[in-house]
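Subgroup meeting minutes
Present: P.N., E.W., G.H.
Scribe: E.W.

1. P.N. recapped why we're keeping a running log of single-chain structure predictions: easier to compare across weeks, and new members can see raw inputs and outputs side by side.
2. G.H. added today's entry (146 aa).
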Amino acid sequence: MSSARSPLQLDFVPSRRINSILGLAHAAALGALWLCQLPTWFVVLLTGLLGLSWLYYWLRLGYRFSPWYIMRLTGTPTTGWQLQTGRGKLLPAQLRTFYLHPMLVVLWFDVGGWHRCSVLASADSIGADALRRLRTILLDAPKPLL
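Output recorded in log:
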């Protein structure tokens, strides 16, 4: 077993739970959109935007070989973090802030310049033990400056 001071390495797989919730939310929005009494051209435009939104989230969270998919997270709050994308690109990152929930951890990173990146970690994407360890490390770490 690794010590508490060793760098954390999390290997992500696409989360069925998160992707299902996002898919259902987009489907519900599409159904509500088509039930509204709006001009046809406006409904078609919003349907296209909704499709682009779904594609964006699927490429970020559901397709492992996307250049925007975060495949691996390595580091600690004190030494810094490194993100690896689906195409193998390594990005040094600074943890900006995080949100903890019993079933989900959301991490927001500064990746350089104006570029920001969020990482969603759930029990079905990294495993329950890894999620518990991540939550413990984040709770014990000094709070990030905003």
